[in-house]
Amino acid sequence: TAKIIDGKGIAEGIRSRIASEVSRMKELIGQVPSLAVILVGQRRDSQTYVRNKIMASEEVGIKFKMISLPENCSECEVCNALCSFNEDPSIHGILVQLPLPQSEQHLDETKILNVISLEKDVDGFHPLNIGNLAMQGMEPLFIPCTPKGCIELLLQSGVEIMGKNAVVIGRSNIVGLPTSLLLQRHHATVTILHAFTKNPEKIAREADILVAAAGVPNLVRGSWLKPGAVIVDVGTNPVEDVKSEHGYRLIGDVRFKEATKIASVISPVPGGVGPMTVAMLLYNTLESAKRAFNFT
Ligand code: NAD
After folding, report:
1. Phi–psi pair at 195, nearest 5 degrees
2. 82 by DSSP, 3-state: which?
3. Beta strands, E only, 63-208
4. Residues in contact with 13: Cβ distance below 8 Å, sequence separation at least 6, in sequence order
């Protein structure tokens, strides 16, 4: 049976290293990193994600600032809030919690992400950061947190990426696309599957490394897997569960039980990529503050 990656444990290790770096910074220059978040609307899941980010930041000594805007706010209001954070030298990281609400007042996501200062784009979603990630010879200032978390899980689990066939299911700007770019940077041969792909099962079966980020619960069956494959399940899909505290629980895109019989290594949901995403956000914020203070 497959080895199960302990994403929670790996993320804890990263967070504790960040905490000691933050206290070293405080001791030596009397400064700490600070992160600003803009939350638009009242989505329950977004509120939970933001709450987790606040708690994780405070735990490692990173300051946190949040602006909540109503669902019907204008694009201009969001951009003004972003501009005030851009200009504030005491802020090192800025993020807009996605997805933005689909209200009557249309908020153009690309336009909004474009306003965030490149030096503070700790989510790594600014078009220039993504563009630099895609180009050889260029280095993005920030790498998106979930994709970076996926690669970090592979590296810390001793998985070799170079020369391997990697298949990424999903091509979104925030997960699938940057993950495929990162895998290429690590010299994998990368194939991307998406909603229009014909016969995905056949292509998935070629994967030495399979990253599932479609957001479709139980999409990947055991029959999709090459024996010995390494699987990173990014899918975080709520399914009804009357027995659990909130009436639902989270499952991945991969049928976990079937997969553990065929794969060699697998990251579970929950407890795999999820905790890594937050750890990478803290990492990017610390890096940003170090750059701002010229602190090494
Ligand atoms: P998205 O809806 O923006 O993109 C989904 C992608 O999957 C699209 O490119 C689509 O073409 C593809 N797809 C959809 N159905 C498919 C199918 N049947 N076969 C192949 N491809 C298919 O979603 P997203 O924002 O990229 O998120 C994907 C999943 O990852 C979701 O479950 C989300 O909750 C989860 N997620 C987890 C974290 C984390 O920290 N663990 C972070 C972000 C997203």
Report:
1. -60, -20
2. helix
3. 63-69, 93-96, 165-169, 189-193
4. none
Residues 65 and 34: beta-carbon distance below 8 Å: yes
Task: State if residue 114 touches ligand 1 by the CB under 6 angstroms criterion.
Answer: no
What is the full DSSP assignment across 98-112? SSPP--SS---HHHH
The DSSP symbol for 5 reads P
CATH number of 145-273: 3.40.50.720
Q: Do domains 31-117 and 145-273 have the same CATH topology?
A: yes
Say what the pLDDT of residue 102 is: 86
Beta-carbon contacts of residue 11 (< 8 Å; ≥ 6 apart)? 149, 275, 276, 278, 279
What does the pLDDT read at residue 105?
73
Short-list 168, 197, 178, 74, CA closest to 121: 178
Kindly give the distance from the C-alpha atom of residue 175 to the centroid of ligand 1, in angstroms, as a whole number: 7
Residue whose CA lies nearest to ligand 1 atom number 15: 195
pLDDT means over runs of 10, the chain (296 residues): 98 98 98 98 93 97 97 95 98 97 86 97 96 96 98 98 98 97 98 98 98 98 98 96 91 98 98 97 98 97
Q: Is residue 169 lining ligand 1, measured as CB closer than 6 Å?
A: yes
Domains of the chain, by residue range, sit at 31-117, 145-273
Find out if CATH 3.40.50.10860 is the number for domain 31-117. Answer: yes
